[in-house]
Amino acid sequence: MAEARAGGCCPPMDLFRSEAMQLVQLIIPIESAHQTVSNLGDLGLIQFKDLNADKSPFQRTYAAQIKKFGEMARKLRFFREQMVKAGITPLTKPGAKSDIDVDDLEVKLGELEAELVEMNANNEKLQRSYNELVEYKLVLNKAGEFFSSALRNATALQKELESQQTGEESLDTPLLLDREILNDPSKQVKLGFITGLVPKEKSMPFERIIFRATRGNVYIKLAAVEEPVVDPVSGEKVEKNVFVVFYSGEKAKTKILKICEAFGANRYPFTEDFGKQILMISEVSGRISEMKAAIDAGLFHRSHLLQTIGDQFVQWNTLVRNEKSIYHTLNMLSLDVTKKCLVAEGWSPVFGSKQIQDALQRAAFDSNSQVGTIFQVLHTTELPPTYFCTNKFTSAFQDIVDAYGVAKYQEANPGVFTIVTFPFLFAIMFGDWGHGICLLLAALIFIIREKKLSGQKLGDITEMTFGGRYVILMMALFSIYTGVIYNEFFSVPFELFAPSAYACRDLSCRDATTAGLIKVLPTYPFGVDPVWHGSRSELPFLNSLKMKMSILIGVAQMNLGIILSYFNAIYFKNSLNIWFQFIPQLIFLNSLFGYLSLLIIVKWSTGSQADLYHVMIYMFLSPTDELGENQLFPRQKTVQLVLLLLALVSVPWMLLPKPFLLKMQHKARHQGESYTPLQSTEESLQVETNHDSHGHEEFEFSEVFVHQMIHTIEFVLGAVSNTASYLRLWALSLAHSELSSVFFEKVLLLAWGYNNILILLVGAIVFIFVTVGVLLVMETLSAFLHALRLHWVEFQNKFYEGDGYKFYPFSFGSVNYEDE
Q1: Is 97's pLDDT higher than 70?
Q2: For the chain, counts of helices (H) and of strands (E)
Q3: Distance between CA atoms of 515 and 513, rounded to whole angstroms?
Q4: CB contact at 8 A, 17 and 384
Q5: Cα(700)–Cα(719) distance, rounded to whole angstroms?
Q6: Most exposed residue of 99, 548, 687, 811, measured as fewest CB within 10 angstroms of its CB?
């Protein structure tokens, strides 16, 4: 939304506070209402208020039009589904504004839908008939083979019996009754038969059920079909068997027919006459050819129709969406008593007044309205929406802030600082310039191909990564910077700026402490001296460095948050928050952790061996004791006593005065006041400036006091826990460095030591996969989430209320984007 500013309408602005907003009222003549809303949708600078919230959707003025366009949208969705099935892509023409008449389009869509539905129905019938004919042909072939085989066997048996009758009788000679049956056809039992196809997977149960149902008085012959056939009912390819079931009696036939229906077996007629069988096969083959030609012609005609629809689909779809959104918006407007005008109210940026008025004038001219739309600014105490004018670079950082909560109207926006502090805190935990280069390459791929990728439908994870491409770019650049400071390239140190300042005293230097190193050159100019990596004192040195650095950065960022609360209080003219929130909070935080930061800097500057843990603990437990060897500067004990006293005083300073003063203000504001003067017409907007207002009519002192007490306790405890929370910068930086070192030494160097090309190749592949999977994916996500937490909790809770709501203007661009 924030990126979608029409035609570069934004003036240069400060992202620190949201755009100045105004509540505007439009009185629109009925005849120009549609054109007016359409022009405002193109402009995208007004968020309309629903003035008919008490009415149901069916009671609103334009319910019939919305129903009409909803039906047109349904037809377009149907066309889209049919095009997807046919593999046709709609032609995406850059949209010149369509001059299509909406009523003509409605008629045309209805005709096209009816034609397409008829085509689908005819094609479905033809396809079903074609599949039935294909199955019928298979039955004729397979059953014909069975009957011809049976006839040959019967003829051979008949000849054998006739030859035996001329010879002597034997045990195999048929009895007298059998001879009579064989010689007299009228006494032979006539068997009926049923032919068809049954799914192969159901063949065994089918055979068993028939056998049991008829008590074995059937003869079943099955023949497998070599290739799957398309089932006429389901339209899916299924492996089937041709069956012939011989039975005797009508009862058996009835049972068999019911079983065929239950098993989804398709039955087809068959004759014993071989001459008729040949004729039937020939006739079925001819009908199959005709049906195939008819289906192909139907599919060609259908494809041509869908291609015609696809050429104009995007244009039609955009028109219908826009029209539907126009009438949705018109339904939010109220009809005046004369029923000749519509009254609209909505929020717009102050800078957009000129563009809005120009759009209203164009609408009145285009619709030949004799009366123009009346535009006026309303004065209200209602809280306006929050609108930050962002671009493709800053929008992702603003989204990070908005995920916590949308800024209250014109309060200080942490998004300005997040652009720098978020990637910097990430980089402290991800400090390796080799890994930073890999992230940079990934971000550059997204940025270089952003025009192409922005028009494609991406997967959820890819789309999220693409949306944050500039965040990843900044994270990569800062990671390279901190990686150069840490002097780590995939955990390997390099002498980038100068040779190491230290040299070994003897051969056992590498396994010794820093006592084995002698400083022979000037101090390494930038970052960590490479000689520290690999020495026994590497971890103690880097742990001490990163832990103290984390505290310094954390205290600095928390102080920034408190200072921003001062700017909020100044902007909203809230002197209570300055005297009883900003000042005591600043004193409390810096009396303890600001003092700790000062001690860290003094210790680094002087090279002192003082134990800062001891200093801070005994500052509370025994503030009057002598510091001894832990003293870093003169009169340190006196300074600590003063700071401790200030910290203790600042707690009741935050807690007690503010609720009583708020109560006094409330009494003074409402005592003896029955009427309040109207606000000045020169002011475009007046909002409630007191952030801690607790209602105009009732003032619950107990509720205000409890709220202030909770806020005080939260800050006091949070000052300790939040400072400790910044130690995650040290912990994750250490974890990243150690993981990188383990993968390099235990995978790549170990494989290198075997002097075997195959092992080296396998080791290199494993190293690449674990580096990408663990360090560039999992560690990136971990550092990202921790940096997110530090901003949301430790930084933003010092000043950011985040209980506003976003500005969502009526815009055709956002309507089409949401529908996509």
Answers
A1: no
A2: 27, 13
A3: 5
A4: no
A5: 29
A6: 99
Q: Is the pTM of this model over 0.85?
A: no
Checking if the pLDDT of 684 tops 70, the result is no
What is the number of other CB atoms lying within 10 angstroms of the CB of residue 169?
Answer: 9
Let me know how long the chain is: 820
Place of tokens 């942490």: 414
Residue 52 CA to residue 577 CA, distance in Å, equals 39
Q: Distance (Å, rounded) from C-alpha 390 to C-alpha 608?
A: 49
Place of tokens 């909002």: 687
Distance (Å) of CA 252 to CA 194, 217, 219, 356: 11, 8, 12, 84
Lowest mean pLDDT among 2-11, 16-25, 481-490: 2-11
- 799-813 pLDDT, tens digit per residue, is 999 999 999 999 998
Mean pLDDT across 650-670: 91
d(CA 808, CA 49) in angstroms, rounded, equals 11
Instruction: Report the amino acid identity of residue 818.
Output: E
Judge whether residue 1 has pLDDT over 70.
no
Q: Quick one: pLDDT band at residue 670, thresholds 50, 70, 90?
A: confident
With tokens 């980038």, the residue in question is 496
Tokens 């008085």 locate to: 217
Taking the C-alpha atoms of residue 329 and residue 640, their distance in angstroms, rounded to an integer, is 65
Block residue for tokens 């303890």: 592
Using H for helix, E for strand and C for coil, what is the string for 519-567?
A: ECCCCCCCCCCHHHCCCCCHHHHHHHHHHHHHHHHHHHHHHHHHHHHHH
Q: What pLDDT band is residue 690 in, cutting at 50, 70 and 90?
A: very low
Query: Could you tell me which residues come within 8 angstroms of residue 667 by beta carbon, excluding any fewer than 6 positions away?
Result: none
Token couple for 135: 């199955």
H-state helical runs in 468-537:
469-486
Range scoring the smallest mean pLDDT among 4-18, 76-90, 315-329: 4-18
